[in-house]
Design goal:
The structure is a single chain. The chain has about 80 residues and is an alpha+beta fold. It is about 35% helix and about 20% strand. A hairpin with a 2-residue loop joins β2 and β3. The longest helix is centred in the first third of the chain and has 9 residues.
Length: about 80
């Protein structure tokens, strides 16, 4: 990600926008501190998409039909050497 001082960003706005449109986020600093990030509209829309909840994620998993043995060992203790 390229970093721009605010005055440079204002002077070279066209270049900054072109680079952002090429899917390269551009960071603008104010008094040397990070202030904002300029991204393409496409990247912005992708980030705004709602994220699936955990149940939807599992249901849509390509591994949904895989048979997994999830039974637990029900014994209360186990033998260990001390």
């Amino acid at each position: 990600m390229r970093e721009w001082a605010l005055q440079d960003a204002k002077a070279r706005l066209s270049e900054l926008v072109r680079l952002a449109m090429e899917h390269e986020p551009q960071e603008i600093t104010l008094r040397g501190e990070p202030a904002v990030v300029v991204i393409s509209r496409e990247d912005y829309e992708r980030l705004r998409q709602p994220k699936p909840n955990f149940v939807e994620l599992i249901r849509n998993s390509p591994l949904m039909d895989v048979d997994i043995d999830l039974t637990r060992d029900q014994s209360l203790t186990r033998e260990i050497d001390l």
